């Protein structure tokens, strides 16, 4: 059960991370480049999908003993929240670039705090799920 849920969350996180980074041009604030953005997206979507998807009640079709629809639902919700939280466009002028650089450090600090609080909470959620 744990392996099936892990693999399901992994597949969904990879697909949604690639979709957000490639199709929508999502980039993590303060960290330019596709690779840091992909790693950040993947990790947040993966850990959230795995932890929360396992706690949701099972619904939808079952594949190899795992009801994958709750995992997909949670992954989509998290991906949409992340897509809405960070503007994906590049600055059009030098003035706009300076303004975005000023707010990028604030956004990076907020995302960093959000990430660690989320990470600790989801690890606790996973530990409770699989040890109880």
Summarize the structure.
The chain has 132 residues and is mainly alpha-helical. It is built from four helices and two strands, in the order ααββαα.
SSE inventory with pairings:
Blueprint: H1 2-23, H2 34-55, E1 62-63, E2 66-67, H3 69-85, H4 94-131
Antiparallel strand pairs: 1-2
What would you say this structure looks like, in words?
- There is one protein chain.
- Helix content is 75%, strand content 3%.
- The chain has one domain.
- The chain is elongated.
- It has 4 helices and 2 strands.
- It has 132 residues and is mainly α.
Comma- or semicolon-separated keywords:
mainly alpha; two-stranded antiparallel ribbon; 2 strands; 132 residues; 4 helices; 3% strand; elongated
Average pLDDT level: 80
Poorly predicted runs are none
Number of strands: 2
How far is the first residue's CA from the last residue's CA? 14 Å
User: In what range is the share of β-strand residues?
Assistant: under 5%
Q: Which sequence of SSEs, written as H and E, runs from N to C?
A: HHEEHH
* Secondary structure category: mainly alpha
Strand order of the largest sheet: 1-2
The biggest sheet, with number of strands, parallel, antiparallel or mixed sense and barrel status, is:
2 strands, antiparallel
Helices, by number, come to 4
Overall radius of gyration: 16 Å
- Taken from the alpha-carbon principal axes, the silhouette is elongated
Number of domain units = 1
Q: Roughly how much helix do the residues carry, as a percent range?
A: over 70%
């Amino acid at each position: 059960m744990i392996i099936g849920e892990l693999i399901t969350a992994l597949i969904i996180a990879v697909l949604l991370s690639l979709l957000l980074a490639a199709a929508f041009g999502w980039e993590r604030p303060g960290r330019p480049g596709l690779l840091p953005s992909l790693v950040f997206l993947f990790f947040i979507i993966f850990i959230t999908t795995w932890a929360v998807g396992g706690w949701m009640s099972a619904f939808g079709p079952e594949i190899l003993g795992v009801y994958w629809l709750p995992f997909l639902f949670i992954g989509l919700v998290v991906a949409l929240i992340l897509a809405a939280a960070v503007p994906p466009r590049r600055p059009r002028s030098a003035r706009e670039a300076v303004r975005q650089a000023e707010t990028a450090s604030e956004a990076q600090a907020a995302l960093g705090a959000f990430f660690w609080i989320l990470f600790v909470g989801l690890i606790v959620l996973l530990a409770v799920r699989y040890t109880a």
